[in-house]
Design brief:
The chain is an alpha/beta fold and 648 residues long. The protein is built from 21 helices and 28 strands. The chain is 39% helix and 21% strand.
Length: 648
């Protein structure tokens, strides 16, 4: 059944008015918002927006963390036939200029003073931006800017219109059709200006329902909304599927309280990129290393049992009675408390996507009874393309095509997708639209991969990033940088990696250590350090990272396709890669080309055979100030292995 987001809200409000729709944590206390309460709030905000001048077909920017009023503002805009455009709350002002001007935005919602300041800062560059609404008034009392007002004043104005014309919003909602534009999401813009991905109510809701049916989601699910609303994945899990299924979305108090809020909520349906799962596991292992000898021995003993039989139990495979008993005992003493500590006691379905997840990490979570699976999709496909069925979750695939999806592999290895969830277009960019959408409805994903014998999709890398080594012993060998980077990031001590090698004789990498994990490792060895830069250049840390690199090289040596991609040389960067410094996108993807230009001195040093290189780098601090970080970086060789040929 085709419908729209506001119609689904009104349907839930009519059928189950008192059931909780959202909860938000404020001052340490969870506050519930019923479906009827959300519908009333949306009506009031929508009426207020209409009074302010927002019209059908217009775009409205929303910037902030997950909050009921942010979602209500998006729904209110959709109720009027307008189009919400969520932007990343941690983006600097300059990053918002292009989307606001590209979409001719006149109205914006900013959560608090930080977002308001950002919008006011760029107003001169966006002269059409006439109205800015805010939710949190703290720090804004003495602001006297034209068009700046609180959402409270918007609600009060809306109440007046609603009382005078009680059928107004219902009539506006009825005018909107499933094929009308529902939202626009801007891509991260790794190679230029971001592109506005246009989605209709139908494309987003069709994929939301397909995903819900695949995993049998119901209105009884509990979800924690903690990722940026500007990311399409957060919108699908906490907005589209929320309205499609009618489950409860919980909004944490702040980014700092997410791990605590996760334990309090106990979600049944959970999504996190691999870096979050890595972070959770790293914190567990750090605490376990600090535990007493008996507790540590018990943990490691039962984890061996879990590793041996946990995945088989999760996949419904037969397990012997003795192993089953040992696992049950481990569940009582270790796995159950561990799931509870992670906030995953009630998780029925957990997904990860965006990057490959390490097999050890994947196995760890499944071995302790958490049903973690992988999915494949993108902003342009409304997320859901491939999902892993229960009992078929594997670390090296991203699942099978779900209902409505067709997949084929082009001659160059690129994955092509046909789906009801495909973007309508790139906004004001017909040339880019024509590049990715064929006349017969196939979408070019730009990902290289193949379908395996079990019908599961395997992704190798981005098509444009797959290259070849030139010269030397590995002349002509395939080079897949993301594949190499992900294998290195599977180690808890390595946070980020940038690999180079295309049209070069060998592969070299720049590495960011995980400051928490390596810091804890150093403290346990009484190794003093004075911050990230100092720790990163310790000889002991280089040896630790070298062992990780060489383990990856050993793994790659038995890979028939990518044995030539073994890492010959590496260095540990003197600073963490940061989106504010332009090195990462707002979704934490490496901007490899930008980094190659910025750190050309280091890349050249790796390939010139140097053992050290001095560098000074400008950085931007959280308060907007700029400074510089300088260091003399060590450069290390890594052992490579002779490729292991498959037996005839």
């Amino acid at each position: 059944m085709q419908t729209t987001f506001p119609k689904l809200l009104m349907k839930h409000a009519a059928e189950r008015p008192d059931a909780p729709a959202m909860r938000e944590k404020e001052y340490g206390i969870w506050q519930a918002h019923s479906w009827a309460g959300m519908a009333a709030l949306v009506e009031q905000v929508a009426c207020g927006m209409h009074q302010a001048g927002l019209r059908r077909g217009e775009h409205m920017v929303v910037i902030g963390a997950n909050r009921p009023r942010l979602y209500a503002t998006m729904l209110a805009a959709q109720a009027l036939g307008a189009i919400p455009v969520p932007l990343y709350q941690d983006a600097v002002g300059g990053e918002c200029v292009f989307p606001i001007n590209n979409a001719d935005v006149r109205f914006a919602f900013g959560e608090d003073q930080e977002q308001v300041d950002k919008l006011l800062e760029i107003r001169a560059q966006c002269p059409q931006l006439i109205c800015i609404f805010y939710e949190d008034p703290r720090g804004l009392r003495n602001y006297e800017e034209p068009g700046l007002s609180s959402i409270e004043s918007l609600i009060e104005a809306g109440k007046v219109l609603s009382a005078a014309n009680p059928g107004f919003i219902k009539a506006e909602i009825e005018k909107t059709q499933p094929g009308d534009v529902a939202a626009m999401f801007f891509t991260s813009g790794t190679t230029g200006n971001p592109k506005g991905v246009v989605h209709t109510h139908n494309t987003l809701l069709d994929r939301a329902r397909a995903g819900a049916e695949f995993d049998k989601l119901t209105s009884s699910e509990e979800v924690l909304a903690y990722l940026p609303p500007a990311w399409v994945g957060q919108n699908i899990f906490s907005y589209a599927q929320w309205l499609a299924c009618g489950y409860v979305v919980n909004c944490p108090e702040s980014a700092a309280t997410v791990t605590i809020d996760l334990k309090e909520v106990g979600p049944t349906y959970y999504f996190a990129p691999p870096r979050v799962f890595v972070g959770l596991l790293t914190s567990v292992m750090i605490r376990m290393e600090d535990a007493g000898r008996i507790k540590r021995a018990m943990f490691h003993s039962f984890m061996e049992v879990a590793k041996k039989v946990g995945p088989d139990l999760m996949d419904g495979k037969p397990v012997g009675p003795l192993d089953r008993f040992k696992y049950a005992l481990g569940n009582m003493l270790v796995y159950g408390p561990l799931r509870n500590n992670l906030g995953m006691s009630r998780v029925r379905v957990a997904y990860t996507a965006g990057e490959a997840i390490g097999p050890d990490l994947f196995t760890f979570y499944r071995s302790i009874g958490i049903n973690i699976k992988q999915l494949y999709g993108s902003t342009e496909t409304a997320v859901f393309v491939c999902l892993q069925p229960d009992h078929e979750a594997r670390a090296d695939t991203v699942g099978i095509p779900i209902a409505g999806v067709e997949i084929k592999v082009a001659d160059n290895g690129e994955i092509l997708v046909k789906s009801p969830g495909l973007l309508k277009e790139y906004y004001k960019n017909p040339a880019a639209t024509a590049e990715v959408l064929t006349a017969d409805g196939w979408y070019h994903t730009s990902d290289a991969g193949f379908i395996d014998a079990h019908g599961h999709l395997k992704i190798i890398d981005r098509v444009k990033d797959v290259g070849r080594l030139m010269g030397g012993a590995n002349d002509g060998a395939m080079f897949a940088p993301k594949y190499v980077e992900n294998k290195l990031k599977f180690f808890p001590y390595i946070k980020e990696v940038v690999a180079y090698g295309d049209r070069r004789e060998k592969v070299c990498v720049l590495i960011n250590i995980d400051f928490d994990a390596v810091g804890n490792w150093a403290e346990r060895r009484n190794l003093p350090y004075a911050g990230y830069t100092d720790l990163a250049q310790k000889p002991e840390v280089y040896q630790l990272i070298k062992e990780c690199v060489e383990k990856v090289n050993a793994d790659l040596s038995v890979d028939a396709l990518l044995a030539g991609s073994q890492v010959s040389r590496f260095l540990v960067l003197h600073k963490e890669l940061d989106a504010d410094d332009g090195e990462l996108t707002r979704t934490n993807k490496v901007r490899r080309g930008y980094i190659a230009d910025k750190y050309a001195l280091l890349v050249d040093a790796l390939y010139d055979g140097k053992t050290q290189q001095f560098i000074e780098t400008q950085v931007k601090f959280e308060d907007g100030r700029t400074g510089s970080v300088s260091a003399t970086l060590n450069i290390s060789d890594a052992k490579t292995f002779t490729p292991v040929k498959a037996a005839a």
